[in-house]
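Input record, target 12 of the design panel.
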């Protein structure tokens, strides 16, 4: 076929176009498999979540979500098909939702139908919202300055209490 394309390119333009289309589709599917493999690995490593799907099934799920234009309403269903995030700690759930968002964002935008690009943005926003909801369940950690201020306030309160005790005639 290659020699025929070189000798008579005008006559074989249809075949040439199909070859390019097949190469493009192969590249997209190959990248989807890479994204699915990275997602599965990162979910296990970073979120301690075992994906229920193997790499090919996860790639098909990601491709289906993109090609059919899943929107924000499908975000929990997407995570539910990958694994059960409800049993995870808040930190692991936050990482899992964030990793899923990164994976969906990493898919080529050409997979999404042109009229469904807005739903892609909505899905990404919904995945981010779920990550932020899980993050809000985490206890807040004090910064170094806040810890120092808290210690300072406690020492002042202890000193004031000791002075009041001394003023009443008692021992500190």
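The sequence produced for target 12 reads:
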């Amino acid at each position: 076929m290659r020699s025929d394309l070189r000798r008579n390119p005008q006559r074989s333009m249809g075949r040439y176009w199909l070859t390019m289309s097949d190469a493009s589709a192969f590249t997209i599917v190959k990248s989807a498999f890479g994204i699915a493999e990275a997602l599965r690995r990162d979910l296990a490593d970073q979120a301690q979540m075992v994906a229920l799907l193997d790499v090919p099934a996860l790639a098909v799920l990601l491709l289906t979500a993109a090609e059919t234009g899943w929107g924000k309403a499908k975000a929990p269903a997407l995570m539910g098909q990958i694994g059960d995030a409800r049993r995870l700690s808040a930190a692991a759930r936050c990482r899992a939702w964030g990793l899923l968002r990164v994976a969906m964002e990493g898919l080529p935008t050409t997979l999404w139908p042109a009229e469904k690009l807005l739903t892609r943005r909505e899905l990404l926003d919904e995945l981010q919202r779920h990550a932020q909801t899980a993050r809000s369940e985490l206890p807040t950690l004090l910064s170094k300055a806040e810890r120092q201020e808290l210690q300072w306030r406690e020492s002042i309160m202890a000193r004031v209490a000791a002075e009041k005790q001394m003023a009443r005639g008692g021992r500190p």
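Helices lie at 2-7, 13-46, 55-67, 75-82, 90-106, 117-136, 144-167.
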